[in-house]
Protein backbone atom coordinates (compact mmCIF):
# COMPACT_ATOMS: atom_id res chain seq x y z
CA UNK A 1 0.00 0.00 0.00
CA UNK A 2 1.36 3.38 -1.00
CA UNK A 3 1.51 6.22 1.44
CA UNK A 4 1.40 9.80 0.25
CA UNK A 5 3.68 11.50 2.72
CA UNK A 6 4.48 15.17 2.87
CA UNK A 7 7.20 15.95 5.36
CA UNK A 8 6.12 18.39 8.02
CA UNK A 9 8.10 21.32 9.31
CA UNK A 10 7.53 20.45 12.93
CA UNK A 11 10.51 21.06 15.15
CA UNK A 12 10.32 21.52 18.90
CA UNK A 13 8.25 24.68 18.52
CA UNK A 14 5.87 23.09 16.04
CA UNK A 15 5.37 20.04 18.22
CA UNK A 16 4.52 22.30 21.16
CA UNK A 17 1.93 24.17 19.11
CA UNK A 18 0.36 20.87 18.00
CA UNK A 19 0.37 19.73 21.63
CA UNK A 20 -1.42 22.92 22.71
CA UNK A 21 -4.03 22.51 19.97
CA UNK A 22 -4.75 18.88 20.80
CA UNK A 23 -4.59 19.57 24.55
CA UNK A 24 -7.32 22.21 24.36
CA UNK A 25 -9.55 19.88 22.38
CA UNK A 26 -8.90 17.00 24.78
CA UNK A 27 -9.82 19.31 27.65
CA UNK A 28 -13.14 19.95 25.93
CA UNK A 29 -13.75 16.24 25.27
CA UNK A 30 -12.81 15.13 28.79
CA UNK A 31 -14.58 18.06 30.43
CA UNK A 32 -17.87 17.23 28.70
CA UNK A 33 -17.57 13.59 29.70
CA UNK A 34 -18.03 14.42 33.39
CA UNK A 35 -19.03 18.07 33.86
CA UNK A 36 -22.53 17.44 32.53
CA UNK A 37 -23.11 14.91 35.33
CA UNK A 38 -23.12 17.74 37.87
CA UNK A 39 -25.73 19.81 35.99
CA UNK A 40 -28.22 16.96 35.55
CA UNK A 41 -30.44 18.24 38.41
CA UNK A 42 -30.64 21.61 36.61
CA UNK A 43 -31.54 19.92 33.32
CA UNK A 44 -34.15 17.77 35.05
CA UNK A 45 -35.83 20.83 36.56
CA UNK A 46 -35.75 22.93 33.37
CA UNK A 47 -36.80 20.27 30.86
CA UNK A 48 -38.84 18.02 33.18
CA UNK A 49 -36.66 15.04 32.25
CA UNK A 50 -37.51 11.50 33.31
CA UNK A 51 -34.79 9.28 34.84
CA UNK A 52 -34.42 7.67 31.41
CA UNK A 53 -34.07 11.09 29.80
CA UNK A 54 -31.39 12.08 32.29
CA UNK A 55 -29.49 8.88 31.54
CA UNK A 56 -29.55 9.62 27.83
CA UNK A 57 -28.14 13.12 28.33
CA UNK A 58 -24.96 11.29 29.36
CA UNK A 59 -25.36 8.23 27.14
CA UNK A 60 -25.96 10.14 23.88
CA UNK A 61 -22.45 11.57 24.19
CA UNK A 62 -20.59 8.40 25.15
CA UNK A 63 -22.49 6.08 22.79
CA UNK A 64 -21.86 8.36 19.78
CA UNK A 65 -18.18 8.65 20.72
CA UNK A 66 -17.61 4.94 21.27
CA UNK A 67 -19.44 4.00 18.07
CA UNK A 68 -17.72 6.44 15.72
CA UNK A 69 -14.18 6.83 17.07
CA UNK A 70 -12.68 3.91 15.10
CA UNK A 71 -14.44 4.95 11.90
CA UNK A 72 -13.30 8.57 11.92
CA UNK A 73 -9.78 7.50 12.89
CA UNK A 74 -9.62 5.35 9.76
CA UNK A 75 -11.00 8.23 7.70
CA UNK A 76 -8.11 10.29 9.01
CA UNK A 77 -5.64 7.72 7.69
CA UNK A 78 -7.24 7.88 4.23
CA UNK A 79 -8.33 11.51 3.78
CA UNK A 80 -5.90 13.31 6.11
CA UNK A 81 -5.85 13.61 9.88
CA UNK A 82 -6.00 17.40 10.11
CA UNK A 83 -9.11 17.59 7.93
CA UNK A 84 -10.94 15.11 10.18
CA UNK A 85 -9.68 16.99 13.26
CA UNK A 86 -11.06 20.30 11.97
CA UNK A 87 -14.32 18.58 11.11
CA UNK A 88 -14.49 17.25 14.67
CA UNK A 89 -14.07 20.74 16.12
CA UNK A 90 -16.87 22.09 13.92
CA UNK A 91 -19.28 19.25 14.71
CA UNK A 92 -18.55 19.53 18.44
CA UNK A 93 -19.14 23.28 18.29
CA UNK A 94 -22.49 22.76 16.53
CA UNK A 95 -23.47 20.30 19.26
CA UNK A 96 -22.45 22.78 21.96
CA UNK A 97 -24.52 25.52 20.32
CA UNK A 98 -27.57 23.25 20.22
CA UNK A 99 -27.09 22.35 23.89
CA UNK A 100 -26.46 25.97 24.85
CA UNK A 101 -29.64 27.19 23.12
CA UNK A 102 -31.79 24.12 23.82
CA UNK A 103 -35.38 24.76 24.83
CA UNK A 104 -36.49 21.17 25.29
CA UNK A 105 -35.12 17.69 25.92
CA UNK A 106 -35.06 16.73 22.23
CA UNK A 107 -32.82 19.64 21.28
CA UNK A 108 -30.51 18.87 24.23
CA UNK A 109 -30.18 15.19 23.24
CA UNK A 110 -29.47 16.08 19.59
CA UNK A 111 -26.80 18.51 20.78
CA UNK A 112 -25.22 15.91 23.05
CA UNK A 113 -25.19 13.36 20.22
CA UNK A 114 -23.47 15.88 17.94
CA UNK A 115 -20.93 16.59 20.67
CA UNK A 116 -20.25 12.86 20.91
CA UNK A 117 -19.70 12.61 17.15
CA UNK A 118 -17.29 15.55 17.29
CA UNK A 119 -15.54 14.04 20.29
CA UNK A 120 -15.00 10.82 18.31
CA UNK A 121 -13.22 12.75 15.55
CA UNK A 122 -11.11 14.73 18.02
CA UNK A 123 -10.28 11.82 20.29
CA UNK A 124 -9.65 9.44 17.40
CA UNK A 125 -7.15 11.66 15.56
CA UNK A 126 -5.53 13.82 18.24
CA UNK A 127 -2.99 11.26 19.42
CA UNK A 128 -1.96 10.24 15.89
CA UNK A 129 -1.62 13.92 14.91
CA UNK A 130 0.53 14.57 17.95
CA UNK A 131 2.65 11.49 17.26
CA UNK A 132 3.17 12.43 13.61
CA UNK A 133 4.23 15.97 14.51
CA UNK A 134 6.71 14.92 17.21
CA UNK A 135 10.22 13.50 16.67
CA UNK A 136 10.58 9.86 17.69
CA UNK A 137 12.79 10.59 20.71
CA UNK A 138 10.18 13.00 22.18
CA UNK A 139 7.04 10.95 21.59
CA UNK A 140 7.04 9.26 24.97
CA UNK A 141 6.80 12.62 26.76
CA UNK A 142 4.07 14.11 24.58
CA UNK A 143 2.04 10.88 24.74
CA UNK A 144 2.24 11.10 28.52
CA UNK A 145 1.15 14.74 28.44
CA UNK A 146 -1.79 13.80 26.20
CA UNK A 147 -2.94 11.13 28.66
CA UNK A 148 -2.44 13.49 31.58
CA UNK A 149 -4.62 16.17 29.99
CA UNK A 150 -7.43 13.70 29.27
CA UNK A 151 -7.36 12.45 32.86
CA UNK A 152 -7.13 15.94 34.32
CA UNK A 153 -10.08 17.17 32.26
CA UNK A 154 -12.20 14.24 33.41
CA UNK A 155 -11.18 14.91 37.01
CA UNK A 156 -11.84 18.66 37.12
CA UNK A 157 -15.03 18.45 35.06
CA UNK A 158 -17.34 18.02 38.07
CA UNK A 159 -15.76 20.98 39.88
CA UNK A 160 -16.11 23.35 36.95
CA UNK A 161 -19.56 22.08 36.00
CA UNK A 162 -20.81 22.40 39.57
CA UNK A 163 -19.36 25.88 39.92
CA UNK A 164 -20.97 27.05 36.68
CA UNK A 165 -24.36 25.62 37.67
CA UNK A 166 -24.18 27.15 41.14
CA UNK A 167 -22.77 30.60 40.40
CA UNK A 168 -23.64 31.34 36.74
CA UNK A 169 -25.83 28.92 34.74
CA UNK A 170 -25.66 25.37 33.48
CA UNK A 171 -25.52 26.83 29.97
CA UNK A 172 -22.07 28.24 30.79
CA UNK A 173 -20.69 24.69 30.49
CA UNK A 174 -21.48 24.67 26.76
CA UNK A 175 -20.48 28.31 26.26
CA UNK A 176 -17.04 27.39 27.61
CA UNK A 177 -16.78 24.69 24.95
CA UNK A 178 -17.23 27.28 22.21
CA UNK A 179 -14.55 29.59 23.61
CA UNK A 180 -12.00 26.78 23.91
CA UNK A 181 -12.81 25.33 20.50
CA UNK A 182 -12.46 28.77 18.88
CA UNK A 183 -8.97 29.09 20.38
CA UNK A 184 -8.03 25.57 19.24
CA UNK A 185 -9.39 26.27 15.74
CA UNK A 186 -7.25 29.40 15.39
CA UNK A 187 -4.16 27.49 16.53
CA UNK A 188 -5.09 24.69 14.12
CA UNK A 189 -5.13 27.11 11.21
CA UNK A 190 -1.56 28.10 12.06
CA UNK A 191 -0.55 24.44 12.40
CA UNK A 192 -1.93 23.71 8.93
CA UNK A 193 -0.46 26.86 7.38
CA UNK A 194 3.02 26.05 8.67
CA UNK A 195 2.69 22.35 7.82
CA UNK A 196 3.57 21.17 11.32
CA UNK A 197 1.74 17.85 10.81
CA UNK A 198 3.08 15.70 7.95
CA UNK A 199 0.51 14.38 5.49
CA UNK A 200 0.48 10.60 5.97
CA UNK A 201 -2.68 9.78 4.03
CA UNK A 202 -2.78 6.48 2.15
CA UNK A 203 -2.94 7.28 -1.54
CA UNK A 204 -4.52 4.04 -2.81
CA UNK A 205 -6.53 3.04 0.28
CA UNK A 206 -10.26 2.36 0.17
CA UNK A 207 -12.67 2.94 3.01
CA UNK A 208 -14.17 -0.25 4.43
CA UNK A 209 -17.88 0.64 4.30
CA UNK A 210 -19.01 -2.86 5.27
CA UNK A 211 -16.70 -2.82 8.29
CA UNK A 212 -17.95 0.64 9.29
CA UNK A 213 -21.58 -0.51 9.19
CA UNK A 214 -20.67 -3.61 11.20
CA UNK A 215 -18.83 -1.46 13.76
CA UNK A 216 -21.83 0.85 14.18
CA UNK A 217 -24.21 -2.11 14.55
CA UNK A 218 -21.84 -3.68 17.09
CA UNK A 219 -21.01 -0.80 19.43
CA UNK A 220 -24.22 1.23 19.08
CA UNK A 221 -26.71 -1.47 20.17
CA UNK A 222 -24.22 -2.87 22.71
CA UNK A 223 -23.79 0.53 24.38
CA UNK A 224 -27.57 1.00 24.34
CA UNK A 225 -28.15 -2.38 25.98
CA UNK A 226 -25.51 -1.83 28.65
CA UNK A 227 -26.77 1.66 29.41
CA UNK A 228 -30.41 0.58 29.75
CA UNK A 229 -30.11 -2.95 31.13
CA UNK A 230 -30.44 -1.95 34.77
CA UNK A 231 -33.40 0.36 34.20
CA UNK A 232 -35.32 -1.71 31.60
CA UNK A 233 -34.33 -5.10 32.97
CA UNK A 234 -31.60 -7.41 31.69
CA UNK A 235 -34.19 -9.90 30.47
CA UNK A 236 -36.37 -7.38 28.65
CA UNK A 237 -36.61 -7.05 24.88
CA UNK A 238 -35.06 -3.56 25.19
CA UNK A 239 -31.88 -5.30 26.31
CA UNK A 240 -31.91 -8.70 24.60
CA UNK A 241 -32.65 -7.48 21.07
CA UNK A 242 -29.77 -4.94 20.99
CA UNK A 243 -27.44 -7.58 22.43
CA UNK A 244 -28.46 -10.03 19.71
CA UNK A 245 -27.92 -7.40 17.00
CA UNK A 246 -24.53 -6.62 18.51
CA UNK A 247 -23.56 -10.29 18.56
CA UNK A 248 -24.41 -10.70 14.87
CA UNK A 249 -22.55 -7.50 14.03
CA UNK A 250 -19.32 -8.63 15.71
CA UNK A 251 -19.34 -11.78 13.54
CA UNK A 252 -19.87 -9.59 10.48
CA UNK A 253 -17.04 -7.30 11.60
CA UNK A 254 -14.60 -10.20 11.85
CA UNK A 255 -15.62 -11.52 8.43
CA UNK A 256 -15.37 -8.12 6.70
CA UNK A 257 -11.99 -7.46 8.32
CA UNK A 258 -10.63 -10.74 6.96
CA UNK A 259 -12.04 -10.27 3.46
CA UNK A 260 -11.19 -6.58 2.97
CA UNK A 261 -7.82 -5.54 1.60
CA UNK A 262 -8.09 -2.28 3.57
CA UNK A 263 -10.02 -3.29 6.69
CA UNK A 264 -11.44 -0.75 9.11
CA UNK A 265 -9.67 -2.66 11.89
CA UNK A 266 -6.61 -4.75 11.11
CA UNK A 267 -7.36 -7.67 13.42
CA UNK A 268 -3.98 -9.30 12.78
CA UNK A 269 -2.32 -6.61 14.89
CA UNK A 270 -4.03 -8.12 17.93
CA UNK A 271 -1.80 -11.16 17.51
CA UNK A 272 1.01 -8.98 18.82
CA UNK A 273 0.85 -9.39 22.62
CA UNK A 274 1.94 -5.81 23.29
CA UNK A 275 -0.68 -4.29 20.99
CA UNK A 276 -3.30 -6.54 22.58
CA UNK A 277 -2.15 -5.39 26.02
CA UNK A 278 -2.35 -1.73 24.99
CA UNK A 279 -5.98 -2.15 23.93
CA UNK A 280 -6.93 -4.36 26.88
CA UNK A 281 -5.08 -2.09 29.31
CA UNK A 282 -6.97 0.98 28.09
CA UNK A 283 -10.22 -0.98 28.40
CA UNK A 284 -9.49 -1.79 32.05
CA UNK A 285 -8.26 1.75 32.72
CA UNK A 286 -11.53 3.18 31.43
CA UNK A 287 -13.48 0.49 33.29
CA UNK A 288 -11.89 1.22 36.66
CA UNK A 289 -11.96 5.01 36.20
CA UNK A 290 -15.71 5.14 35.62
CA UNK A 291 -16.56 2.39 38.10
CA UNK A 292 -14.78 4.59 40.64
CA UNK A 293 -15.71 8.04 39.40
CA UNK A 294 -19.48 7.69 39.13
CA UNK A 295 -19.98 5.95 42.46
CA UNK A 296 -17.43 7.95 44.40
CA UNK A 297 -19.47 11.04 43.56
CA UNK A 298 -22.70 9.30 44.57
CA UNK A 299 -21.14 8.15 47.84
CA UNK A 300 -19.62 11.41 49.03
CA UNK A 301 -22.72 13.42 48.05
CA UNK A 302 -25.10 11.05 49.84
CA UNK A 303 -26.61 12.53 53.03
CA UNK A 304 -26.05 9.10 54.58
CA UNK A 305 -22.29 9.41 53.94
CA UNK A 306 -20.32 12.67 53.64
CA UNK A 307 -23.14 14.88 52.36
CA UNK A 308 -20.83 16.90 50.09
CA UNK A 309 -22.14 19.40 47.58
CA UNK A 310 -21.37 18.85 43.88
CA UNK A 311 -18.49 21.33 44.07
CA UNK A 312 -17.09 19.74 47.24
CA UNK A 313 -17.37 16.27 45.70
CA UNK A 314 -15.45 17.41 42.65
CA UNK A 315 -12.80 19.04 44.84
CA UNK A 316 -12.45 15.84 46.84
CA UNK A 317 -11.14 14.04 43.72
CA UNK A 318 -8.35 16.60 43.22
CA UNK A 319 -5.62 14.44 44.87
CA UNK A 320 -6.35 11.76 42.26
CA UNK A 321 -6.44 14.25 39.38
CA UNK A 322 -3.23 16.02 40.41
CA UNK A 323 -1.24 12.83 41.03
CA UNK A 324 -2.48 11.36 37.74
CA UNK A 325 -1.41 14.49 35.87
CA UNK A 326 2.06 14.64 37.45
CA UNK A 327 2.76 10.95 36.86
CA UNK A 328 1.45 11.06 33.29
CA UNK A 329 3.81 13.92 32.43
CA UNK A 330 6.92 12.64 34.20
CA UNK A 331 6.74 8.83 34.00
CA UNK A 332 7.36 8.42 30.24
CA UNK A 333 10.61 10.40 30.45
CA UNK A 334 12.07 7.85 32.85
CA UNK A 335 10.33 4.67 31.74
CA UNK A 336 10.25 4.98 27.93
CA UNK A 337 13.74 3.51 27.29
CA UNK A 338 12.94 0.40 29.30
CA UNK A 339 10.54 -2.53 29.14
CA UNK A 340 6.93 -1.58 29.68
CA UNK A 341 6.24 -4.76 31.61
CA UNK A 342 6.97 -3.73 35.18
CA UNK A 343 5.82 -0.10 34.90
CA UNK A 344 2.45 -1.11 33.43
CA UNK A 345 2.03 -3.97 35.90
CA UNK A 346 2.91 -1.68 38.81
CA UNK A 347 0.48 0.95 37.52
CA UNK A 348 -2.37 -1.55 37.46
CA UNK A 349 -1.22 -2.81 40.86
CA UNK A 350 -1.35 0.71 42.31
CA UNK A 351 -4.91 1.02 41.07
CA UNK A 352 -5.93 -2.31 42.57
CA UNK A 353 -4.36 -1.43 45.94
CA UNK A 354 -5.91 2.02 45.95
CA UNK A 355 -9.41 0.68 45.28
CA UNK A 356 -9.00 -1.99 47.97
CA UNK A 357 -7.90 0.70 50.44
CA UNK A 358 -10.92 2.80 49.51
CA UNK A 359 -13.10 -0.10 50.62
CA UNK A 360 -12.05 0.75 54.17
CA UNK A 361 -13.63 4.22 53.79
CA UNK A 362 -16.83 4.62 55.80
CA UNK A 363 -19.25 7.44 56.55
CA UNK A 364 -17.18 8.23 59.66
CA UNK A 365 -13.85 8.45 57.79
CA UNK A 366 -12.32 11.91 57.71
CA UNK A 367 -10.98 13.35 54.49
CA UNK A 368 -7.49 13.09 55.97
CA UNK A 369 -7.99 9.32 55.98
CA UNK A 370 -9.10 9.24 52.36
CA UNK A 371 -7.06 11.64 50.23
CA UNK A 372 -3.87 9.58 50.20
CA UNK A 373 -5.79 6.55 48.90
CA UNK A 374 -6.92 8.70 45.98
CA UNK A 375 -3.28 9.60 45.31
CA UNK A 376 -2.41 5.89 45.00
CA UNK A 377 -5.21 5.38 42.47
CA UNK A 378 -4.09 8.51 40.60
CA UNK A 379 -0.53 7.19 40.29
CA UNK A 380 -1.81 3.98 38.72
CA UNK A 381 -4.13 5.81 36.33
CA UNK A 382 -1.32 8.18 35.37
CA UNK A 383 0.97 5.30 34.43
CA UNK A 384 -1.81 3.65 32.44
CA UNK A 385 -2.88 6.74 30.49
CA UNK A 386 0.71 7.72 29.66
CA UNK A 387 2.28 4.37 28.74
CA UNK A 388 -0.48 2.21 27.26
CA UNK A 389 -1.16 4.26 24.09
CA UNK A 390 2.57 4.51 23.47
CA UNK A 391 2.93 0.76 24.03
CA UNK A 392 0.55 -0.03 21.17
CA UNK A 393 1.08 2.78 18.67
CA UNK A 394 4.87 2.45 18.45
CA UNK A 395 4.39 -1.02 16.96
CA UNK A 396 2.30 0.15 14.00
CA UNK A 397 3.43 1.52 10.63
CA UNK A 398 2.89 5.26 10.29
CA UNK A 399 -0.03 4.83 7.89
CA UNK A 400 -1.96 2.81 10.49
CA UNK A 401 -1.29 4.98 13.56
CA UNK A 402 -4.67 6.68 13.13
CA UNK A 403 -6.45 3.34 12.98
CA UNK A 404 -4.56 2.14 16.05
CA UNK A 405 -5.37 5.31 17.93
CA UNK A 406 -9.05 4.85 17.15
CA UNK A 407 -9.01 1.23 18.28
CA UNK A 408 -7.25 2.02 21.56
CA UNK A 409 -9.61 4.91 22.29
CA UNK A 410 -12.63 2.78 21.39
CA UNK A 411 -11.48 0.25 23.98
CA UNK A 412 -11.16 3.09 26.51
CA UNK A 413 -14.70 4.33 25.82
CA UNK A 414 -16.18 0.84 25.86
CA UNK A 415 -14.38 0.06 29.11
CA UNK A 416 -15.76 3.26 30.65
CA UNK A 417 -19.30 2.36 29.59
CA UNK A 418 -19.02 -1.17 30.95
CA UNK A 419 -17.32 0.01 34.15
CA UNK A 420 -20.17 2.38 34.95
CA UNK A 421 -22.71 -0.38 34.25
CA UNK A 422 -20.99 -3.17 36.22
CA UNK A 423 -20.11 -0.84 39.09
CA UNK A 424 -23.72 0.36 39.20
CA UNK A 425 -25.02 -3.20 39.05
CA UNK A 426 -22.87 -4.23 42.04
CA UNK A 427 -23.97 -1.15 43.96
CA UNK A 428 -27.68 -1.59 43.18
CA UNK A 429 -27.66 -5.29 44.16
CA UNK A 430 -26.05 -4.39 47.47
CA UNK A 431 -28.57 -1.60 48.09
CA UNK A 432 -31.57 -3.79 47.23
CA UNK A 433 -30.43 -6.53 49.59
CA UNK A 434 -29.66 -4.03 52.32
CA UNK A 435 -32.97 -2.20 51.95
CA UNK A 436 -34.84 -5.48 52.31
CA UNK A 437 -33.06 -6.12 55.60
CA UNK A 438 -33.71 -2.56 56.82
CA UNK A 439 -37.41 -2.69 55.92
CA UNK A 440 -37.89 -6.13 57.50
CA UNK A 441 -36.38 -4.80 60.74
CA UNK A 442 -39.17 -2.19 61.07
CA UNK A 443 -42.28 -2.99 63.15
CA UNK A 444 -44.58 -5.24 61.08
CA UNK A 445 -47.97 -3.86 60.11
CA UNK A 446 -47.20 -0.26 61.02
CA UNK A 447 -48.00 2.65 58.67
CA UNK A 448 -44.52 3.93 59.29
CA UNK A 449 -43.08 0.74 57.83
CA UNK A 450 -45.20 1.14 54.69
CA UNK A 451 -44.29 4.82 54.28
CA UNK A 452 -40.60 4.21 54.88
CA UNK A 453 -40.52 1.26 52.51
CA UNK A 454 -41.99 3.44 49.77
CA UNK A 455 -39.66 6.36 50.53
CA UNK A 456 -36.57 4.15 50.65
CA UNK A 457 -37.28 2.65 47.25
CA UNK A 458 -38.89 5.56 45.42
CA UNK A 459 -38.49 8.73 47.49
CA UNK A 460 -35.87 11.43 47.86
CA UNK A 461 -33.24 11.58 50.64
CA UNK A 462 -35.09 14.50 52.27
CA UNK A 463 -38.33 12.46 52.42
CA UNK A 464 -36.47 9.60 54.07
CA UNK A 465 -34.93 11.96 56.62
CA UNK A 466 -38.35 13.45 57.47
CA UNK A 467 -39.85 10.02 58.09
CA UNK A 468 -36.89 8.95 60.24
CA UNK A 469 -37.30 12.12 62.31
CA UNK A 470 -40.88 11.05 63.10
CA UNK A 471 -39.84 7.68 64.53
CA UNK A 472 -39.06 6.80 68.10
CA UNK A 473 -35.60 8.33 68.80
CA UNK A 474 -33.94 4.96 69.41
CA UNK A 475 -35.56 3.36 66.35
CA UNK A 476 -34.75 6.39 64.22
CA UNK A 477 -31.11 6.37 65.30
CA UNK A 478 -30.77 2.66 64.54
CA UNK A 479 -32.41 3.10 61.14
CA UNK A 480 -30.21 6.07 60.26
CA UNK A 481 -27.11 4.05 61.19
CA UNK A 482 -28.31 1.10 59.10
CA UNK A 483 -28.77 3.37 56.08
CA UNK A 484 -25.30 4.84 56.54
CA UNK A 485 -23.82 1.35 56.75
CA UNK A 486 -25.75 0.44 53.61
CA UNK A 487 -24.14 3.31 51.69
CA UNK A 488 -20.74 2.11 52.91
CA UNK A 489 -21.43 -1.42 51.68
CA UNK A 490 -22.69 -0.20 48.30
CA UNK A 491 -19.57 1.91 47.79
CA UNK A 492 -17.42 -1.06 48.83
CA UNK A 493 -19.09 -3.19 46.15
CA UNK A 494 -18.27 -0.70 43.39
CA UNK A 495 -14.65 -0.38 44.62
CA UNK A 496 -14.29 -4.17 44.74
CA UNK A 497 -15.38 -4.38 41.11
CA UNK A 498 -12.78 -1.74 40.18
CA UNK A 499 -10.06 -3.51 42.20
CA UNK A 500 -10.76 -6.86 40.51
CA UNK A 501 -10.59 -5.26 37.06
CA UNK A 502 -7.27 -3.58 37.90
CA UNK A 503 -5.87 -6.87 39.24
CA UNK A 504 -6.85 -8.68 36.01
CA UNK A 505 -5.07 -5.95 34.01
CA UNK A 506 -1.96 -6.36 36.17
CA UNK A 507 -1.86 -10.12 35.55
CA UNK A 508 -2.32 -9.57 31.80
CA UNK A 509 0.62 -7.15 31.79
CA UNK A 510 2.85 -9.68 33.53
CA UNK A 511 1.89 -12.41 31.06
CA UNK A 512 1.87 -10.44 27.79
CA UNK A 513 4.79 -8.04 28.20
CA UNK A 514 7.55 -10.58 28.56
CA UNK A 515 10.88 -10.38 26.78
CA UNK A 516 12.83 -7.48 25.27
CA UNK A 517 11.16 -4.40 23.85
CA UNK A 518 10.43 -5.08 20.14
CA UNK A 519 11.61 -2.58 17.52
CA UNK A 520 9.42 0.24 16.28
CA UNK A 521 6.78 -0.71 13.64
CA UNK A 522 7.41 -4.42 14.26
CA UNK A 523 3.69 -5.31 14.12
CA UNK A 524 3.71 -4.76 10.36
CA UNK A 525 5.26 -8.22 9.98
CA UNK A 526 1.98 -9.75 11.15
CA UNK A 527 0.17 -8.47 8.05
CA UNK A 528 2.51 -10.08 5.53
CA UNK A 529 1.05 -13.58 5.73
Provide key terms for this protein.
Growth Hormone, Chain: A, 3 domains, about 0% strand, mainly alpha, about 80% helix, about 525 residues, 18 helices
CATH architectural arrangement of the largest domain: Up-down Bundle
CATH topology assignment of the largest domain: Growth Hormone, Chain: A
User: Which secondary-structure class do the elements indicate?
Assistant: mainly alpha
Count of separate DSSP helical elements: 18
Morphology call: globular
Task: Give me the CATH superfamily of the largest domain.
Answer: MFS general substrate transporter like domains
Number of domains: 3
Please give the radius of gyration in angstroms. 24 Å
Mean pLDDT: 82
Overall description:
The chain is an all-alpha fold. It has three domains: 10-200, MFS general substrate transporter like domains (Growth Hormone, Chain: A), CATH 1.20.1250; 208-263; 266-529, MFS general substrate transporter like domains (Growth Hormone, Chain: A), CATH 1.20.1250. It has helices at 12-38, 40-47, 51-79, 81-101, 105-133, 139-168, 171-193, 209-232, 237-259, 273-301, 310-316, 318-335, 341-358, 371-393, 401-440, 447-458, 461-469, 473-512. The longest helix is centred in the last third of the chain and has 40 residues, at 401-440. It is globular, with a radius of gyration of 24 Å. The relative contact order is 0.13.
Amino acid sequence: MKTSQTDGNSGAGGARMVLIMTAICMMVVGFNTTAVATILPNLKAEFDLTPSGLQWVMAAYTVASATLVTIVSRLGDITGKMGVFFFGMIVFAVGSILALLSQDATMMLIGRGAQGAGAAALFGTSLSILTAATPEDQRASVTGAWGAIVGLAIGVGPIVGGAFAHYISWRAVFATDLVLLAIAFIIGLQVSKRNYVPDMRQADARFDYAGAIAMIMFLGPLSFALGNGEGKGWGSMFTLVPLAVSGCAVVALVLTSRLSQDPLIELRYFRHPRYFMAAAGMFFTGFTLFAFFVYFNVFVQSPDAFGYSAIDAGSAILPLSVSMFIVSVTAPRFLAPYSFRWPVALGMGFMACGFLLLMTTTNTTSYAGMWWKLVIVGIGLGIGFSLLPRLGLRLLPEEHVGQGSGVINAFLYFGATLGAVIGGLAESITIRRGLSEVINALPAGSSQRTDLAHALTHGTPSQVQQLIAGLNPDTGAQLAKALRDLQDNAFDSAMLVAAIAAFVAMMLALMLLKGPVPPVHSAVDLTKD
